[in-house]
Amino acid sequence: MEEQNLKRDTSHVPTLEGQNFTIWNILIDAELCTSGSRYVCDTDLAPKSYSTTLAKCDQNNVKALQLILRKLHHKTIVSVVNAYMVKNAKAIWKNINTKYTSQTVTKRGRTWMRWECLYFTGNIKEYVKECSNILFDVAGIGITIPPHLMEYSILEKISRDSDMYDHFIDSMVLSMSSKINPQ
After folding, report:
1. Which helix (H) or strand (E) holds 147?
2. What Pfam families does UniProt report for this protein, alphabetically (predicted)?
3. Is the dihedral of CA 18, 99, 140, 142 positive or negative?
4. Roughly what angle, to the nearest 10 degrees, separates helices 105-117 and 124-140?
């Protein structure tokens, strides 16, 4: 059973490259909880209770390290892991969170500029995916925007190129009408 836990399917967890921290953090946290190794990221390597042995804590530390390190881009590893912490899930977890959850003015500004620079370019699936990623980051660093303003902003981004917008709306209407009135 231990061996099975070490080979968990984590394909749904993206590789942390920096800008995708919020979604990565949510998914990797869920994986750590499911594997029973989340607590080693918050506490020192000591038994969680008297019934937990030090060997069990070490096993959970290894599981946490494997889950985390497998999902870090090589550039991220270089920036958050050093030789002194390579065997300590708590130290790596703390370093990652310190680096990526910073709520500095610069971080907020960069995230907002990513939002402002995003526009619909014809591929709705890609647009929705990128919107979601940026909005996760916006929420993650504490930028609050009234929902109605966000809705207007999304519509404005889609309708910026009126020809593309008209084509998009026409395609949707034709698609819907062909489903309603099949010939």
Report:
1. helix 147-159
2. Retrotran_gag_2 (PF14223)
3. negative
4. 160
What is the distance between the alpha carbons of residues 168 and 2, in angstroms, rounded to a whole number? 51
pLDDT digits (tens, 9 = 90+) for 59-75: 899 999 999 999 999 99
Tokens at 164, concatenated: 């593309």
Nearest to 141 by CA among 93, 109, 102: 102
Beta bridge partners of 72: 16
Q: Give the pLDDT confidence of 70-120 residue by residue, as tens digits.
A: 999 999 899 889 888 888 999 999 889 888 876 567 778 888 888 888 888
Beta bridge partners of 16: 72
SS3 16: strand
Task: Spell out the residues 6+ positions from residue 17 whose beta carbon is closer than 8 angstroms to its own.
Answer: 73, 75, 76
Rounded Cα gap, residues 62 and 89, in angstroms: 8
